[in-house]
Write a structure and sequence with these properties.
Elements lengths: L1 E4 L2 E4 L4 E9 L4 E9 L3 E4 L6 E9 L2 E9 L1
Antiparallel strand pairs: 1-2, 2-5, 3-4, 3-6, 6-7
Length: 71
């Protein structure tokens, strides 16, 4: 589960290696995160300009995409 709270991205129920990319609408990766996790992961998105982005999460061989808006 991917949730945006303010400018913090929360990933619930992750286990093992998790790769997160925040991608702009032009296709540029503006933030990348790679960690071995066993619980909820929180990622700060401070410093990223306001706008529409796609969050791509790869965990346990499953890719999840979610559109987010930073305001």
């Amino acid at each position: 589960k991917i949730t945006l709270v303010g400018r913090t991205l929360q990933l619930g129920a992750v286990k093992g290696n998790v790769q997160v990319d925040v991608v702009s609408m032009t296709g540029s990766v503006v933030k990348s995160f790679d960690k071995n996790a066993t619980r909820t992961v929180m990622i700060s998105l401070s410093g990223i300009p306001n706008g529409l982005y796609v969050v791509r999460v790869v965990n346990a061989g499953v890719t999840t995409l979610k559109k987010i808006t930073l305001e």
